[in-house]
Amino acid sequence: MNRDEKKQLLDELHELLNSAEIVVISHYKGLTVAEVSELRDKIREAGAGFRVTKNRITKLALKDTKFEGLADLFKGPTAIAFSSDPVAACKACVNFATDNEKLVIVGGAMGANALSLAEIKRLATIPSMDELRAKIIGLLQAPGAQLARVTKAYSEKEAA
Q1: Which of 24, 123, 124, 138 falls 20 to 30 Å from 83 in CA-CA distance?
Q2: How far, in Å, are 19, 83, 148, 151 from residue 60 at the CA level?
Q3: The domain that contains 40 carries what CATH number?
Q4: Which domain range does residue 132 map to?
Q5: pLDDT at position 160, please?
Q6: Distance separating alpha carbons of residues 67 and 62, to the nearest angstrom
Q7: What is the rounded CA–CA span in Å between residue 158 and residue 160?
Q8: Rounded to the nearest 10 degrees, what angle do helices 86-99 and 33-45 cross at?
Q9: In this structure, are 55 and 116 located in the same domain?
Q10: Are residues 159 and 88 in the same domain?
Q11: First and final CA of the chain: distance in angstroms?
Q12: Which whole-number Å values give the CA distances from 77 to 33, 34, 132, in the listed order?
């Protein structure tokens, strides 16, 4: 990788980190290419992004971002999951790590706050934005549906 490519990668990572709300850092030692591709697909489906990173360049990209305190976690074969929805990246990583023990989540951050593994797992249990929207729509539609059932039952009773 020449100097221009490194500069471009550094700028790209810096921009990516500035736009993300959450970053989940994991070690992927032992994962096959097929497993990493499967992980990428699952994270993409959840609405997040996944990137295998070069530690030295990533540490430089972290400077002047809200995730600057995470530099110590970048040792060994490291990858980051990132998203603007705090639940999406956590949920996808935790679900994959549960099924495949080769993916080890080492930490992360939401905004300027560092997250432990326990906090990341707790975030993964929260319903996603789509699930919450569906629940709200269901709650809003429930009274109308009940009213329609009661009215129909009353009209059937009157007709009989």
Answers
A1: 138
A2: 16, 20, 61, 66
A3: 3.30.70.1730
A4: 127-160
A5: 61
A6: 6
A7: 5
A8: 150
A9: yes
A10: no
A11: 83
A12: 13, 16, 35
User: Do residues 113 and 134 both lie within one domain?
Assistant: no
Q: Tens of pLDDT along 9-59?
A: 888 988 988 888 899 999 999 889 999 999 999 999 988 899 998 889 888
Tokens of 83: 């998203």
**87, amino acid identity:** V
How many residues does this entry show for the chain? 160
Query: In this structure, are 76 and 150 located in the same domain?
Result: no
Burial (CB count within 10 angstroms: exposed 0-12, middle 13-18, buried 19+), residue 21: middle
Estimate to the nearest angstrom the gap between the alpha carbon of 106 and the chain centroid.
15
- Predicted structure pTM score: 0.76
Question: Are residue 74 and residue 140 in the same domain, yes or no?
Answer: no
> How many domains does the structure of the chain reveal?
2
Residue from 70, 50, 47, 40 nearest 58 by CA: 70
